[in-house]
């Protein structure tokens, strides 16, 4: 799988038809999830209850430095809907012999993992009981999506919904959440933060954030509103991709593509 090099290619072209760009590099194939992640929306496999996605993880501006070698990679993200688990296999290039993938064991999906978002959007396609399509979502809140930094435990805002109370007030993606209604986030964890965000429509709530490169903390106050969220374009594209392919049963027999012995064999490459 080639790394995405869209920007310089587009600058070199005068035609909006993307003439000369390889199919694998067209912007309709690789789409942005957020500031850190992009995903191949066309090369997706569903076999039984298991998905295989190709993803690229790029270090964000506050991660560049000693963690860059960990935070940036290209690889396969595997999702197993039957037991809500996932694993990532990072691609390593070894010229002139080609590339190979290496990763860890399956682990239970947590809310701060990218696999959580993928399971939320796509596991309904697997036919595993209990999953439903998100589609258009409506809820009462501030329009903030959060995650927990695995190293520091800090709560970071990773998405702000357009036209939401948070967006209108100036809250930005990447802001670190310091407190909600005077509840300090230090040591509380993501579950408590999500609980404090919930409430009735029209209720007032205040948050304090720390912004990168800003010395002083910033306080915002607003009212909870009813928010409607449509599925992102990259989600719609992947659903269309999966639904256009024939149903593939899970592999049975002696082949074990979860094992290091089989992982990079041709019969397991797209598993």
Give the SSE map:
Layout: H1 6-11, E1 30-32, E2 37-40, E3 45-47, E4 50-57, H2 68-71, E5 73-80, E6 85-93, E7 99-103, E8 107-108, H3 114-122, E9 137-141, E10 144-148, E11 155-160, H4 165-169, E12 176-180, E13 183-184, H5 190-197, E14 204-210, E15 218-223, E16 225-229, H6 233-243
Antiparallel strand pairs: 1-2, 2-4, 3-4, 4-5, 5-6, 6-7, 6-8, 9-16, 10-11, 11-12, 12-13, 12-14, 14-15
Give a written overview of the molecule.
By secondary structure, this protein is α+β, with helices and mostly antiparallel strands. It has two domains: 140 residues, Lipocalin; 93 residues, Roll (Pdz3 Domain), CATH 2.30.42. The strands form three sheets. Strands 1, 2, 3, 4, 5, 6, 7 and 8 form an eight-stranded antiparallel β-sheet that branches. The longest helix is centred in the last third of the chain and has 11 residues. The N terminus is likely disordered.
CATH topology of the largest domain: Lipocalin
CATH architecture of the largest domain: Beta Barrel
Count of alpha/pi helices: 6
Q: Outline the low-pLDDT stretches.
A: 1-21
| Helix content, binned percent | 10-25%
Number of strands: 16
| Secondary-structure element series | HEEEEHEEEEHEEEHEEHEEEH
Assign the CATH class of the largest domain.
Mainly Beta
Q: Identify the overall geometry.
A: globular
Kindly estimate the percentage of residues that lie in beta strands according to DSSP.
Answer: 25-35%
The whole-angstrom Rg is 20 Å
Structural class: alpha+beta
Provide the domain count.
Answer: 2
């Amino acid at each position: 799988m080639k790394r995405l090099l869209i920007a310089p290619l587009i600058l070199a072209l005068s035609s909006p038809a993307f003439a000369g760009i390889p199919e694998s590099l067209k912007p309709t194939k690789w789409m942005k999830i957020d500031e850190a992640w992009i995903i191949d929306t066309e090369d997706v496999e569903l076999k039984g209850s298991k998905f295989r996605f190709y993803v690229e993880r790029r270090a964000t501006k506050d991660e560049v430095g000693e963690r860059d070698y960990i935070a940036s990679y290209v690889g396969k993200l595997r999702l197993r809907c039957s037991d809500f688990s996932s694993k990532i296999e990072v691609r390593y290039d070894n010229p002139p012999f080609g590339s190979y993938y290496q990763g860890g064991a399956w682990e239970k999906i947590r809310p701060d993992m990218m696999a959580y978002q993928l399971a939320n959007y796509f596991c309904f396609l697997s036919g595993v009981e209990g999953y439903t399509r998100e589609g258009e979502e409506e809820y009462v809140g501030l329009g903030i999506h959060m995650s927990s930094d695995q190293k520091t435990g800090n709560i970071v805002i990773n998405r702000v919904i357009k036209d939401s109370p948070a967006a209108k007030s100036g809250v930005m993606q990447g802001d670190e959440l310091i407190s909600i209604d005077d509840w300090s986030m230090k040591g509380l964890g993501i579950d408590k933060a999500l609980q404090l965000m919930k409430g009735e429509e029209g209720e007032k709530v205040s948050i304090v954030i720390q912004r990168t490169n800003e010395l002083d903390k910033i306080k915002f106050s607003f009212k909870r509103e009813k928010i409607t969220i449509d599925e992102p374009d990259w989600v719609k594209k992947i659903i269309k991709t999966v639904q256009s392919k024939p149903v593939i049963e899970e592999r049975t027999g002696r082949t074990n593509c979860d094992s290091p012995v089989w992982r990079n064999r041709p019969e397991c490459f797209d598993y």
